[in-house]
Amino acid sequence: MTPPTAIRPLSPVEARVLSTLMEKARTVPDTYPMTLNALLSGCNQKTSREPVMNLAESEAVAALEELRELGLVTETSGGRAARFGHQFQKAYGVPEQSAVLLGLLMLRGPQTAGELRLNAERWYRFADISSVEGFLDELQERAEEKGGALVVKLPRAPGAREQRWAHLLCGPVDVDALGAPAPSAGGAATHDRIAALEAEVAALRATLERVCSELGLSPSGQ
């Protein structure tokens, strides 16, 4: 089968369902293909997920139907429940190593090549970081006739030693926003406290200078 030249951008829920199938096929093959209940539990895991989701069963079912129409998911009957599997490599026309990296980026968000190699241990064992980087470069330089790039290298974040990578399976990303660390609530609160202290110090200094002037003294006490 010739892979399609392009697959429409996935929704975040579709990407989570698809990447969960990709993960479980490699980490728990004895329970794969997956039942709907097992798949839903995998999608809503609190660990190894970015962002953490709390999908309803109806959302997972709708995503599965869309993915099946795109040729990314198959459903098998037999036993007491339907089971679902993925066809990621066949649909996108990529090798195992590339599929692993894309699955991890969908599940865990932007990561460096080193993080991807470490997180891939249960999926696929890469020989070294340069091997990971080689497959990422191929995915970034993927020809337009094959559907175009599937990953993008983000700008280096302030203070970071390595650049992170993000997937493009859900469409274009805001490279600048993903490349910079998100401001935290704690950071904003600290900034506000510093500003308040600076204003208080300025007011105290003005008061001191006025009192010293009235007494004919130097503010420094000289």
Automatic annotation (TrEMBL):
Mind telling me which InterPro entries this protein's record contains? DUF480, WH-like_DNA-bd_sf, WH_DNA-bd_sf
Task: Cite the SUPFAM superfamilies for this sequence.
Answer: Winged helix' DNA-binding domain
Which family, according to the similarity comment? Belongs to the UPF0502 family.
What is the name of the protein in this document? YceH family protein
